[in-house]
Amino acid sequence: MIDRFNRRIEYVRVSLTDRCNLRCRYCMPESGVTKLAHSEILTYEEVLRVIRLLARLGIKKVRLTGGEPLIRMGIVDLIRSIKNLDGIERVVMTTNGVRLASMAEQLIDAGLDGINLSLDTLDGKIFQAISRRDCFDRVLEGLNKILSLGMRDVKLNCVPLAEINDDVDDLIELIRDRDVKLRFIELMPIGLARDFKGLPLSTLRDRIEQKFGRLMPIDSTEAQAGPAKYFRLNGFVGAIGFIDALEDKFCSTCNRVRLTAEGFLKLCLSAPAGLDVKRLMRGGLDDEQLMLRLSSAIYNKPLEHAFDGAIELNDRRRMYQVGG
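Below the sequence we write its predicted structure tokens.
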């Protein structure tokens, strides 16, 4: 569907849980995490109902997120069910990779089209310092497993933090002979991330070119639709992408909405406004009425985020409560 600013909304990110098996410092506190009660989280039947109606409104791509989506039971069957919905062309997932190796074959068999793997460093000690967990070897095993099984759409997501994981040479070397996209994502001022200093991506680009040579833009017909701007380095198989929502605001081309684990349709990552879909469904709204409410909400999607403006305009949820 088209929103009031003439953007075609074709993509929904669905958070399946607010729980995670890591405790990354810029995302979750080490302890004392208030978790949603099981009854507050959308059932898979409710998730499928919302996606089915969104598909009727023009949504074509679904990304499953968390928390960590692979810790929710039954996710393989959910992927298979989403793939069977009319109008849905792609089902992809963002994961921390801790359980990926053990589930990779099942995920591919269910029809999963792509994996975004959160990987902030290839240094095991830095990984543990950021994530507060000793899981680096399992994450790397998951990456190698999914590549060995032939998945073509594999992306690595790195959030560079100043003086923590801002040496990215090893990550870049990883894509020298691997056909994956390495994306550097600007630290977003959400929740605990406000306590950290992100490395400006313009600075990172300069560092990469000084070490590895010129970053050559990839023609837009080669890159998948999305916020990342992709480049290649001479002699490298993989590509490098930059997602800098603050330095290079791309709200005018935003094509997504988000469904949180508790059933709230978020229209913008920063804005608290949206639609309490769970309340409407559990209140007895039929499909046609619910679709009208979804359509009206999406039509009124905000023009742009407010991360660079008044803090009171931003959502107070932490990233794991939003779904990224």
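The longest strand covers residues 90-95.
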